[in-house]
């Protein structure tokens, strides 16, 4: 009688081929790659379309003693004074960082006024290029951070705001000292001064 071919035996221990990569290694389960952070719309208080602010170096240390915290209750008699040590060249960057910290802590953009004792902040220079009327209209609206020079005739047009930040981006001479006192009068609750501690302390006294 004809022979019946034996059926192939399948052993339970046999396993199918493992997924391998092109190099022959076992392919590991791919890990999710974090995508780019969501590009948030420009937040009120971080002005645009002016020139981009200089980006601070990565992992740049910030002295915790000089970082502005959530502002205390309003004090109409005298604002709280905070000093953030900074060179004349770094005062604008320190002021910009102070603005960001205040906004992140919950301060409304319209609460903040940023003044410079030396050259104008780049945002102010940009906005003034469209004319003084449009520039000062933004200050009168009072719904966003406003940047201005601390001295000269412009100082007479500045209205008080709860928080005033001063970037001492020039020499602390008589004009700068007068600008600092003007800033103090304009601050309702908090005055933040970004500059060289020694001359600033000499202007305000040991209370800074």
Task: Supply the key terms.
208 residues, alpha/beta, 5-stranded parallel beta sheet, 5 helices, 15% strand
Summarize the structure.
25% of the residues lie in helices and 15% in strands.
Main beta sheet: 5 strands, parallel
The chain-level structural class is: alpha/beta
Q: Using DSSP, what is the number of strands?
A: 5
Encode the helix/strand succession as letters: EHEHHEEHEH
Annotation field: number of helices:
5
Side by side, the strands of the main sheet go 1-5-4-2-3
Helix content: 25-40%
Distance separating the two termini: 112 Å
Low-pLDDT sequence parts: 10-44, 49-66, 68-76
Average pLDDT level? 74
Shape descriptor reads globular
**Spatial extent as radius of gyration:** 30 Å
Explain how this protein is built.
The chain has 208 residues and is of the alpha/beta class. It has helices at 91-104, 122-128, 132-141, 174-186, 197-204; strands at residues 80-85, 112-116, 146-149, 161-167, 187-195. Strand 4 (161-167), helix 4 and strand 5 (187-195) form a beta-alpha-beta unit. Strands 1-5-4-2-3 form a five-stranded parallel sheet. The protein is globular and about 35 Å long.
Chain-wise SSE layout:
Blueprint: E1 80-85, H1 91-104, E2 112-116, H2 122-128, H3 132-141, E3 146-149, E4 161-167, H4 174-186, E5 187-195, H5 197-204
Parallel strand pairs: 1-5, 2-3, 2-4, 4-5
């Amino acid at each position: 009688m004809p022979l019946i071919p034996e059926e192939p035996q399948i052993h339970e221990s046999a396993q199918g081929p493992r997924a391998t990569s092109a190099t022959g290694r076992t392919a590991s389960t791919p890990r999710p790659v974090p995508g780019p952070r969501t590009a948030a719309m420009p937040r009120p208080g971080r002005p645009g379309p002016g020139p981009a602010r200089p980006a601070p170096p990565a992992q740049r240390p910030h002295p915790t003693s000089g970082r502005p915290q959530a502002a205390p209750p309003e004090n109409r008699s005298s604002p709280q004074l905070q000093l953030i040590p900074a060179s004349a060249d770094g005062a604008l960057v320190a002021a910009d960082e102070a603005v960001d910290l205040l906004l992140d802590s919950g301060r409304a953009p319209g609460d903040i006024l940023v003044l410079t004792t030396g050259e104008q902040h780049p945002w102010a220079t940009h906005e003034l290029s469209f004319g003084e009327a449009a520039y000062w209209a933004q200050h009168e609206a009072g719904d966003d951070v406003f940047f201005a020079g601390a001295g000269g005739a412009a100082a007479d047009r500045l209205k008080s705001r709860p928080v005033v930040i001063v970037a001492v981006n020039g020499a602390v001479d008589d004009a700068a000292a007068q600008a600092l006192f003007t800033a103090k009068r304009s601050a309702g609750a908090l005055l933040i001064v970004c500059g060289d501690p020694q001359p600033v302390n000499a202007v305000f006294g040991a209370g800074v």
